[in-house]
């Protein structure tokens, strides 16, 4: 089938590459000409395991093309995916500017029948707005005739395993009441629906809400365990033992109950905020979601409080080695990363950060220029040189079993603040570290 994808970020690019990989003819459009040029040469601007390989092979066999030409892109696809960003606006609502810009452009160019798919995470009612916008633009122009359906098909991929998630989705939600559009989408997704039936068809509004509900319940689990971790700290209990104790109950499970320094990324923070705002707009008070967000904002300051209290508030001139900058492992995404909140707090207190991340160095350099307070190091060992403490912000695999002797040798003092609980307190004691983690008694 012929498919067009508007927006080549994490979602659009991965979705485009995966659809091309199974044989669909894909055109991806982005307004960022530099990105279009790089992608056309097979250069992948983001880090996502497996993406470069499938992209390059589809470029070679001609199944994928990149463009910034709306006429060409709209004419190409029978299915037109909108996969642009929906960042929060100043009051926390999802900003639909980019989605509606695409809708306007589609309205100007559309000809014949198309299925327009909202793949971006958008508030309930957005399919109606997109339909309205396209219809308004069509009615203003003369000549070509066009018909279309607008449907919701939210994306559930996880950064870091996005290719695999798209190739093997848990579920495919299709929000539409148009049989014609449903048939088109079933044909499109048939290659991903072989093992068992994954397609769930529902009305558009329920599909839009399903995406928010999914992210919000995951964020709720994280904020819940972080609250228990802080309580464990105050009560002298060990949250990791509690985690094991509750995770063994299949109704609870072990997933998404890792205590830490709060959730970040481009989805959970903005989607929780956006659902709170959607509810507020109709006079509904979301008590649980507000608490989830508040706990998360507080959680991003917990490690700073531990650091500050260890140094009795005197952080001027202290040097901290950061291992991990991205908001989670296997991605270079720094959006809303807890590392950014801690870096800023340390800088405000007069401290210096020496940082290393396996994939997010380029992105960090793009956001913060290197300066007297930020040194970006080429290896995790270099970050340790002359630092007063090691701080773990992201649980990358290659931080899990380091050479502790070497860490001790390179640090000024054997001191670790572990925001992800990746080390065992007993081993830290044997290795002779002072060790602070989340929701577990500190080791002195
Ligand atoms: P992103 O910011 O990485 O990419 C958005 C892309 O859209 C950019 O390349 C930008 O240049 C392009 N763009 C902006 N305006 C455009 C226009 N008018 N025409 C064409 N291209 C345009 O965003 P993302 O992370 O891919 O997220 C996209 C959507 O998918 C968001 O709504 C997000 O909430 C949702 N989502 C994201 C994830 C994730 O893990 N990142 C997962 C599921 C859903």
Category from helices, strands and their pairing: alpha/beta
Basic shape: elongated
Give the N-to-C terminal Cα separation: 63 Å
CATH homology superfamily name of the largest domain: NAD(P)-binding Rossmann-like Domain
Query: How many individual β-strands?
Result: 14
| SS element count, helices | 18
CATH class of the largest domain: Alpha Beta
CATH architectural designation of the largest domain? 3-Layer(aba) Sandwich
- Look up the CATH topology of the largest domain: Rossmann fold
What does the average pLDDT come to?
97
Sheet with most strands: strand arrangement: 3-2-1-4-5-6
Number of domains: 3
Rg calculated over all Cα atoms: 24 Å
| Ligands | nicotinamide-adenine-dinucleotide
Q: Note the beta-strand portion.
A: 5-15%
Oligomer: single chain
Helix content: 40-55%
- What kind of sheet is the major sheet? 6 strands, parallel
Protein architecture, described:
- With 444 residues, this protein is α/β, with parallel strands linked by helices.
- It folds into 3 domains: 2-202, Rossmann fold (3-Layer(aba) Sandwich); 212-298, N-(1-d-carboxylethyl)-l-norvaline Dehydrogenase, domain 2 (Orthogonal Bundle), CATH 1.10.1040.10; 300-436, Rossmann fold.
- It is built from 18 helices and 14 strands.
- It has helices spanning 10-21, 33-40, 51-61, 70-76, 97-109, 126-140, 162-167, 179-189, 204-235, 239-247, 268-281, 287-299, 302-310, 338-348, 361-367, 380-384, 404-410, 425-431; strands at 2-6, 25-29, 64-67, 79-82, 112-118, 146-152, 172-175, 199-202, 319-323, 352-356, 374-376, 389-392, 415-418, 434-436.
- The longest helix is centred in the middle third of the chain and has 32 residues, at 204-235.
- The chain is elongated and about 75 Å long.
């Amino acid at each position: 089938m012929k498919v067009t994808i508007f927006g080549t970020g994490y979602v659009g690019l991965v979705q485009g590459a995966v659809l091309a990989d199974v044989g669909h003819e894909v055109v991806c459009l982005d307004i960022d000409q530099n990105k279009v040029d790089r992608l056309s040469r097979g250069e992948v601007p983001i880090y996502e395991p497996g993406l470069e390989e499938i992209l390059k092979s589809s470029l070679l066999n001609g199944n994928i093309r990149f463009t910034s030409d709306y006429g060409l892109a709209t004419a190409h696809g029978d299915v037109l995916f909108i996969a642009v960003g929906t960042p929060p606006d100043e009051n926390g609502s999802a900003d639909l500017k980019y989605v509606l810009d695409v809708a306007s452009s589609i309205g100007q160019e559309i000809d014949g029948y198309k299925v327009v798919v909202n793949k971006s995470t958008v508030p309930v009612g957005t399919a109606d707005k997109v339909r309205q916008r396209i219809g308004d633009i069509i009615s203003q122009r003369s000549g070509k005739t066009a018909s279309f359906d607008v449907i919701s098909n939210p994306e559930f991929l996880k950064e870091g395993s996005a290719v695999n998630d798209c190739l093997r989705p848990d579920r495919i939600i299709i929000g539409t009441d148009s049989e014609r559009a449903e048939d088109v989408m079933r044909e499109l997704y048939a290659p991903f629906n072989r093992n068992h039936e994954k397609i769930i068809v529902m009305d558009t509004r329920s599909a839009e809400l399903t995406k928010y509900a999914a992210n919000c319940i995951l964020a709720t689990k994280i904020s819940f365990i972080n609250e228990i971790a802080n309580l464990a700290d105050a009560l002298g209990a060990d949250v990791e033992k509690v985690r094991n104790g509750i995770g063994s109950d299949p109704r609870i499970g072990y997933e998404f109950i890792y205590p830490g320094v709060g959730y970040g990324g481009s989805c959970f923070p903005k989607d929780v905020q956006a659902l709170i705002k959607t509810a507020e707009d109709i006079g509904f008070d979301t008590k649980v979601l507000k608490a989830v967000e508040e706990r998360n904002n507080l959680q991003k300051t917990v490690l700073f409080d531990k650091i500050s209290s260890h140094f009795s508030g005197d952080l001027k001139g202290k040097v901290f080695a950061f291992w991990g900058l991205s908001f989670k492992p296997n991605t270079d995404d720094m959006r809303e990363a807890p590392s950014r909140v801690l870096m800023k707090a340390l800088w405000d207190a007069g401290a210096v950060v020496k940082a290393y991340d396996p994939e997010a160095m380029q992105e960090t350099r793009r956001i913060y220029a290197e300066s007297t307070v930020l040194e970006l190091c080429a290896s995790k060992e270099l970050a340790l040189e002359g630092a007063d403490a090691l701080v773990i912000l992201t649980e990358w695999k290659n931080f899990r079993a380091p050479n502790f002797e070497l860490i001790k040798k390179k640090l000024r003092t054997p001191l670790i603040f572990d925001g992800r609980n990746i080390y065992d307190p007993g081993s830290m004691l044997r290795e002779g570290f002072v060790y602070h983690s989340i929701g577990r008694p500190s080791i002195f």
